[in-house]
Structure formats: C-alpha cells, structure tokens
Amino acid sequence: MRAKIALITVLTNKISKMKNFYTEVLGFTIKSETDGYIELVNEGVRFAICTRHIMADITDNHESFAEEHKGQAFELAFPCASAEDVKSTYHELVSKGAIPIKEPATMPWGQTTAFFADPEGNIHEIFAD
C-alpha cells in the first residue's frame, strides 16, 4: 500500500439532515445511495456520508462508533476563487441553513477564510488565497 487518501467519510446519526445539507446547501450531487450510506460526486478524493450504526455493524460493533460524538475531529476546506467569493459564498451557505461560526476575515498569512458548521456540528472552512 502507498499512503494516499482515496475516500473521506463523514459519520453521522442524522443521515437525512446531513444528506440535505451536503446536497441542498453545499451543492454536491449523489453518486450512489443505500440505506445509511451516501456517496457524493467529488473530483479527486471520494466523499461519503455514513451512519455510525452502519460503521458499527461492519466493524463488529467497535465501541468508538457507539460513543457519543464529542468535539471536532476533522475539517473540510473548500476553495473559493477570490476573497469576494468567500464573502458571498459564506452568506449564501448561511442563508441555506449552514450554521455560522466565523464571518469572512483576512488571516495573517493572507488568505481570506470563513467558517460554518453542518447539522452534526462539524466545522468547515471556505477560503481564497
């Protein structure tokens, strides 16, 4: 095996809300869907949403999938074309139901970034160089 990330799966107890968020708010389209698992169309790395229940089942009920979700475990970062695009995209996402975390701001290293959360509380970033 060579070290390469080929799939990112977001775990959830709220599959319907997460499906709506990632398709209706962020604009992903569904590549395939089964009960409790949704793969989304994404260029490059495969991207999916899966219930913790399904992951527990396929890992012989590993306890980490049964534990209550606590804190931030990952972040997805979405590139924008410009600082103005970050600002307009942030307001569009929030108007569609994204949870606002931090309004667009210029970081000390020059990027413009903004942060929002999905229905599971995962905080994500949009940015422009």
From TrEMBL:
Gene3D superfamilies recorded: 2,3-Dihydroxybiphenyl 1,2-Dioxygenase, domain 1
Cited PROSITE patterns: VOC (PS51819)
InterPro entries the record matches: Glyas_Bleomycin-R_OHBP_Dase, Glyas_Fos-R_dOase_dom, VOC_core
Residues in VOC domain copies: 4-129
Matches recorded under SUPFAM superfamilies: Glyoxalase/Bleomycin resistance protein/Dihydroxybiphenyl dioxygenase (SSF54593)
Entries under Pfam families matching the protein: Glyoxalase
PANTHER family on file: BLR2520 PROTEIN
Protein name as annotated: VOC domain-containing protein
Organism: Sulfoacidibacillus ferrooxidans
